[in-house]
Amino acid sequence: MDKKSEDALVTAAKSGDRDAFERLINHYYDVIFKFACKWCGNANDAEDITQDACIKLARFIGKYDGKSAFTSWLYRLVINCGKDWYKSQNRHPTPNPDTLERVKTESKSEDQLYAKQVINALYQLPEGEKDAVILVLSEGLSHKEAAITLGCKESTISWRVHEARKKISAQFKEEQSYG
Amino acid sequence: MDDQKRDDILKNIDTPVIDTNAKKRALNLAMAEFDSVQKEKAARKEKKFQGFQILSRLMGNSNTQTNKRKRNTMEQRSHKKFIYGGMATAAAVIIVAGIGLQLAPNFSAQSQFAQHAAIDTLSAGNAAPQNKGRTETRSQMSNESALVEQESFAPQPSSSPAPKEKADQLSGHKNAPQKEQAKMQRQHGIAEGKAVPMRSKDEAVAARTMIAPTSPSSTNFTGIMHEADSMIALAPADIVPNHYQDTGRDKFSDFIENPFKSVTADPVSTFSADVDTASYSFVRRQLNNGVLPQKDAVRVEELINYFDYDYDTPTDKSEPFKPSVTITESPWNAGKQLMHIGIKGYEFTGAQPNSNIVFLLDVSGSMNSPDKLPLVKNSMKMLLSSLKPDDTVSIAVYAGAAGTVLEPTKVSDKAKIIAAFDRLSAGGSTAGAAGINLAYQLAEQNFDDNAVNRVILATDGDFNVGINNREELKDFVERKREKGVFLSVLGFGQGNYNDDMMQALAQNGNGIAAYIDTLSEARKVLVEEATSSLFPIAKDVKFQIEFNPERVSEYRLVGYETRALNREDFNNDAVDAGDIGAGHSVTAIYEITPVGAVQSVDPLRYGQKDEETAEKKYNADNIYNEQNFEQEIAFLKMRYKLPKEDVSKLMTQPITQENNANNTETQFATAVASFAQILKGGKYTGNMSYDDVIALANAAKGDDPFGYRAEFIQMVRLAKTASDMQP
After folding, report:
1. Is B113 contained in some domain?
2. Single residue among B69, B103, B137 that ends a domain in this structure
């Protein structure tokens, strides 16, 4: 789906077009789910958060003002849903990267191990840095878009991504130096 | 450190494949929400006041059941701005949207269920408690939308090959006790080596792979059933032993073991019959998990009465049972004796009476695990084989909403009934949570004065059946019982099991309360003992034993703590008591101290007078003739009502030393009683150990045609292992 038809869909859904909204959910469910998975690091929780987010979307799509990209707005909604969900469950996110990985048998095990360590390191980052990394690196948002999603300044995002990269790399250096 | 590599990894974080069912569910919910939002918008435009009706519906809907909590909060959260127009409307719309959108074929709903079940088993392996709420909510939703789905589907023609295959399948189960036993032995082997059966996760994975091929394209639903069966057979072992403590959410009424009572102070003991067996299966389940059951879960009499004893049977229906009393030496305390009172109900020789049965099944989210709803369905199908072609069966379900899945149907139309069971995860629905009302309505709709009219409630303890108040529910069941519709309760699953409530309901409904943990337990209760489970031969059976202070100085009733009656209740026909079904056997054991033996309770220093008055009391009762008192140890009185009668009959029998006998039946009962009491802490069993119980039971195994007694011995071994593991 290209940008233009996406926008048209969102506008139609906003105005109360049932079919458009259905197509919208059909399309964005995957996006939301994938993002939720990365955000909380736990596929089981992500499924519930996604469900909540879809319901919220139905209620609040009218509030989308079109000033920012729809996805930036959507990610913000998902993060809020996720936070609410964990609050309602009375617990904190429990990242379990094992639930995220599809089994890739063809790739080298050494690479897999490395990937695993990187992802584990990701979930040890402070929340703001983790969110910034996921939005910018994984979801491919611009720093500006990510700033809208997380409700902070663009420079904050840049700094957070920088910090996160440094921290993840540092963890490896540490491990290597200890042998 | 390769920065590029690092960023590549972060760019391509893997996410699992999207579950299309979850997506569909989310889509349905979102659409429902969307519709309600649009409706609200329109309503706001019209500025129309929607009236108080919605408010009252809203209040009616706000039930307090715990497993609905999350859904409610979610609804409240998303609707808090629209108190007047919101919640009730949204709930209704979810259902409407379900019809329009959930166009999945019937089978996908089934396989969806199976997948869920498998996932549940898996998650039990790592994070069961956290996951529970989630699964409940989601499947709750899916149930609601799924319930509706069925309305748009006529009975599936594909179910026609069912009867034959089903029958094959059922007969295939006949040899299962041995299998079960073999399984237990295997498990025990592991338990001894490693102390805990730890093979759970692997097997859960195996269970999942078994389910996996059940693709939506599969039209052979018996295949699905077979797989489900084998999964269920594994179920008890599949659960990772979680150390069971009294703080579990399973609810049992607590009680204190009967103590020794002095005959001079309290010469009369009164209690009601109890043929329930729920406690035994629950205990077995716990032990299979490698943990000792909580003490209140062990009701000694239910463990004893789980087994069928070869007592003398009456031949005449008018006198439905016959007591056989034996006296043996007590293995628990030197010098004491055990007095066994065994009665066996009359067994039908001719045709069994007609039945009009309504299944009321819990299909709420919490039932969504392999040892719950799938087991319920299979159990109910088994029960069909015990019914006659003329009998009528109907099915009602309840979750957030209640609905009739099957209007009263003759058992001869088995294919239709089985198809209804198979559709259950996609059952029909009407608004309102009035499950139990609906079930009784169905029963009354087809009421047959000459038949046994019975509602069979299958649940994991969530009694969201429309009446939330516990006392009100009991009264409701009691009133219906007086009209002739009885209630039996079958318990399933663990974690939310409400034993307390189930016992109360079954007692008020003149029915049995059984706990079904495995398919073979279902077969025992619903096939092998179908006649006793379904057809009462006597109701309100009460026992009263009066001890002769000349011969007995003290006594202790083993078990029946929850069934104790007041002395005056015995002759009061208005007081409800236990019921006995065809062929049921009931055993009560007293531990007595003969006069002259060492007493547990010190005799009274100034007690001489008391003794005399007690003796006088004994003499004064005019139904005894005066000669043989010295021979009598005690006097047994029983009261019962025939099923259709309201006035009780009295049956009496003096117990003398001549009853002194020792046979395998009483020995086995003693072994079970010992075991149960040791599980409860061994306050009265002296030095008796699990090994002694095994030895005693082994010697008294008898014929044991179904292997239940052998299973018991295995269970004692498991208990021994589990108790060794206790900190």
Report:
1. no
2. B103
Provide mean pLDDT across the span B501-508: 80
Among A101, A134, A169, beta carbon nearest to B6: A169
Q: How far apart are CA B480 and CA B440, in angstroms?
A: 8
Beta carbons of B16 and A102 less than 8 Å apart: yes
pLDDT class of B399 with cuts at 50, 70, 90: low
Least confident range from A9-13, A144-148, B226-230: namely: B226-230
Pairwise CA distance, residues B346 & B532, whole Å: 10
Amino acid B475: pLDDT: 83
Same domain, A119 and A131: yes
Q: Residue B556 — very low, low, confident or very high, per pLDDT cuts 50/70/90?
A: very high
φ, ψ for residue B303 (rounded to 5)? -65, -45
Check if the beta carbon of residue A40 is closer than 8 Å to that of residue A123. Answer: no
Query: What is the spatial distance between Cα B198 and Cα B239, in angstroms, rounded to a whole number?
Result: 9
Rounded Cα gap, residues A81 and A38, in angstroms: 14
> What contacts A1, CB < 8 A, 6 or more positions away?
A9, A27
Q: Are strands B632-641 and B337-345 parallel, antiparallel or unpaired?
A: unpaired
Residue of B6, B17, B44, B45 best to disrupt the A interface, most CBs of A under 10 A: B6
Under 8 Å between Cβ of A102 and B14: yes
Do the Cβ atoms of B663 and B326 come closer than 8 Å?
yes
Q: Yes or no: say if B489 and B459 are a contact pair by the CB < 8 Å rule.
A: yes
The helix (H) or strand (E) run that includes residue B546 is strand B536-547
Q: For residue A158, give the CATH number of its domain.
A: 1.10.10.10
Of B9, B15, B37, the CB nearest to A37: B15
pLDDT digits (tens, 9 = 90+) for B212-221: 333 343 333 3
pLDDT above 70 for B133: no
Of A46, A51, A134, the CB nearest to B29: A51
| Number of Cβ atoms within 10 Å of the Cβ of B658 | 11
pLDDT-derived band at A32, boundaries 50, 70, 90: very high
For the question of an ipTM over 0.95, the answer is no
Q: What SS3 string covers A109-158?
A: HHHHHHHHHHHHHHCCCCHHHHHHHHHHHHCCCCHHHHHHHHCCCHHHHH
| Domain assignment of residue A145, given as a range | 101-179
By C-alpha distance, the chain A residue nearest B40 is A59
Number of domains in chain A: 2
Interface test with B, best of A28, A29, A60 (most B CBs within 10 A): A29
**Residue in the block written with tokens 């003329």:** B390
Interface of B with A in 138-197 (CB under 8 A): 138
CA–CA gap between residue B464 and residue B400 (Å, rounded): 8
3-class state of residue B347 by DSSP: coil
| B199 in a structural domain | no
- pLDDT, average across residues A128-150: 90
Of B13, B19, B74, the CB nearest to A52: B74
Domain that holds residue B309: 261-348+537-604+632-725
Residue of B nearest to A119 (CA): B10
Closest by CA to B306, choosing from B270, B330, B274, is B274
If DSSP states are collapsed to H, E and C, what string results for B690-714?
HHHHHHHHHHCCCCCCCCHHHHHHH
